[in-house]
User: Fold these one by one.
Assistant:
Number 1:
Amino acid sequence: MLKVSLISDTHTKHHSCENDLPGGDLLIHAGDFMNTGYSINEAYEFFHWFDSIDNYDTKIFIAGNHDRLMENDPEKMTGILTGYKTIEYLQDEECVLYFDGPNGDFPEDNIRIYGSPWQPEFYNWAFNLPRNGEEMKAKWDAIPSNTDILVTHGPPFGYQDIPGGQSIRVGCEMLRYRVDEIKPKIHVFGHIHGGNGHYYNGHTHFFNASVLNERYSYTNLPFNFEWDQTTNEIKWL
């Protein structure tokens, strides 16, 4: 069993949730750690905070639509991140947690995590692509079929994707198609603050891990649970 914590959409208010992160094997942040996304100081402050958390074995984050610097100046930002040794940033790439023993005898025990920041176009924010376009399809087609944990900023269509006070679903249809196809064990995202919650469809646990509500107040606790990667069962902590 792995102890896992999930957060998203902290928007510079990450300190609000730090007392609700009990520690464990894996901590994931699904994007939107900045506000407007232009302040380098906001990025530095988040990187330092995330790096300073010392009670998780692995810490992974992706960017979101508010994290403009990560798209506008990726070379500079990834260069800065090389100075933070305990955190992993994923942008259309994979991170593997190796549990197959010293001889590699049990590769089925490894956990493959893939992170991507893209979402359907919404005004002029970061990591936006035309809804249902070929560019979007290419991003989701790149997700490896053997992914165990998928981290995207936005939700797939139909799962935890209804904004507060509304009845329409705003998730990505193409992402939903790919998720249905590859069936990751866990899919964590944020973006739609009012969609915070968990749903299990029989093969994938969907987590909208937004910790702020739509007024940007810290109202939603991180998801903390023990996870059996073999049976895909979770036990809430």
Note: The chain is about 20% helix and 25% strand.
Number 2:
Amino acid sequence: MPDRILFWHRRDLRISDNLGLAAARARSPQVTGVFCLDPHILDRDDVAPARVTYMIGCLAELQRRYAAAGSDLLILQAEPVKGIPQLAQAIGAAAVYWNRGVEPYSRDRDTQVAAALKAAGIEIKTTFWDQLLQAPGSVTTKSDNAPYTVYGPFWKNWMQQPKAEPAPALAAAEGLAAELQEQAQAAGAIALPSAQDLGFVWDAPLLLAPGELAAQQQLEQFCDGDRAITEYDEQRNFPFVEGTSQLSAALKFGAIGIRTVWAAAEAAYNHCRSDETRSNVRTWQQELAWREFYQHVMYFFPELADGPYRQQLKNFPWVNNEDQFQAWCAGRTGYPIVDAAMRQLNEIGWMHNRCRMIVASFLTKDLIINWQWGEKYFMQKLFDGDLSANNGGWQWSASSGMDPKPLRIFNPASQSQKFDPDGEYIRQWVPEIRHLDNAELVTGKIPSAERDRAGYPPPIVDHKTQQALFKAKYQAQKA
């Protein structure tokens, strides 16, 4: 009689190219999936309704795909340390498998769940680094075998490492008999709730439809369909152009496997006919490496989740003006490119990456507001919000992170002129000033009378003045 295996899904909401799930199926056809709606995550004050909506959509499709493979995906709403062992015992699971995570909470939670399962006499298998192409510790400095704290050398080493092929999809599995279904329900298994049932309301369309199928289609469109990947380096910085993969949420929740993504990128690279197109593909692969870099450093430096990496930023004298922060959140700073980006975030739960850097620089360097305020606001809104990437990006923008040239300050006007020269992005998201000419839009030099007529606010700070103030504070901290 084959063993019953319980596979615990977390950031791997798919049945294809799932390392832990493939290993469980290789051991036994009797594989049952479970996802636990964890109150320690859902009850936080930085959970985005758009993100929960996407996650629930992914789970709904995952249940359908489990059924098509012959098995079941069960849903719990409980603390995992109690719910997972209780369910495993109820269905007679010989072992519980899951993929590993890098974030501090997930690691602490997994340690507790593993201990509870061992105490119940249930085997655990948790050696799978499914969400990464290279496991933490596999890419280290050659001099002292330490984790990298600078991206450039990390990328060079990381790129040289072999990359695994996609894992086989779950197939020909066996579901729970009626009696075990009843026992699972008695142990807490419930019907999948909606996001609204959980208290999260999001009515706007999502940038990417939830689930494995939509993620795979998006990958194919990006890498092979309209060939966006071969123009990526040229187009990725223009927020009005759909020049990015838009796979960030799928990668955050594991609606697509990273080995599948890498294989598609490699195939695109190998089909290129010029050095220029190969360079574009390579740039996208470098972005995938940035994703891994931030996860590796979160694993080795978990304190990043709570504060700055650079010592001089730990007691930085932020101004932290609450009214200015609220203006930034609402897209009412009087700087058109900043306001366009914040309104995009508020309306669709996503923001173009170039704009993420612009608004983060503006919050920290122009308003001199603690980057953690912005980091949290992003997590409250982003449907692709990911601790490692979001934290890494904010620390980079705030000059508090792992950047060999930390003092970077973006000028909103020059960013607009370079990346939205015709004001198309600004016109889309700040419609009250769309009638203005390009020069006024992209520079933000709008006559007061025009601002008054449009109901658009004057700049809340002067960029040149604030830039000098931030630099003075920064240099004083170094002394």
Note: The CA atoms of residues 35 and 75 lie 5 Å apart.
